[in-house]
């Protein structure tokens, strides 16, 4: 399976607030449930800082869309939850 980490041709990152941009990226980027999310790559492709991505992911975690796991399979990170693609 190929993971598309590049920009989506039909969507502009400047149209939406960061949590919505990340939600869109997760839904179309080929991420699998249980996968650790690449905060650095998300920041790069959304033209922002990793700190801003982490804050947006924290907001998404409050809504139950992702989860932060201290002892996740790939170490401490935000993980995509099952059924949230």
Structure description:
With 85 residues, this protein is α+β, with helices and mostly antiparallel strands. The protein has a single domain, classed as Arc Repressor Mutant, subunit A. The protein has three helices and two strands; from the N terminus they run αααββ. Strands 1-2 form a two-stranded antiparallel ribbon. The longest helix is centred in the middle third of the chain and has 13 residues, at 50-62. The model is unreliable at 9-14 (pLDDT under 50).
Write the layout of secondary structure elements.
Layout: H1 18-28, H2 39-45, H3 50-62, E1 66-69, E2 77-80
Antiparallel strand pairs: 1-2
Helix pairs in contact: 1-3, 2-3
Please summarize what this structure is.
The protein has 85 residues and is of the alpha+beta class. The chain is 36% helix and 9% strand. It has helices spanning 18-28, 39-45, 50-62; strands spanning 66-69, 77-80.
């Amino acid at each position: 399976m190929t993971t598309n980490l590049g920009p989506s041709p039909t969507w502009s990152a400047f149209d939406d607030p960061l949590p919505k941009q990340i939600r869109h990226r997760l839904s179309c980027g080929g991420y699998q449930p249980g996968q650790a999310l690449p905060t650095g790559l998300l920041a790069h492709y959304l033209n922002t800082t990793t700190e801003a991505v982490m804050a947006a992911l924290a907001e998404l975690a409050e809504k139950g869309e992702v989860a932060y796991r201290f002892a996740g399979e790939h170490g401490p990170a935000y993980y995509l939850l099952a059924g949230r693609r």
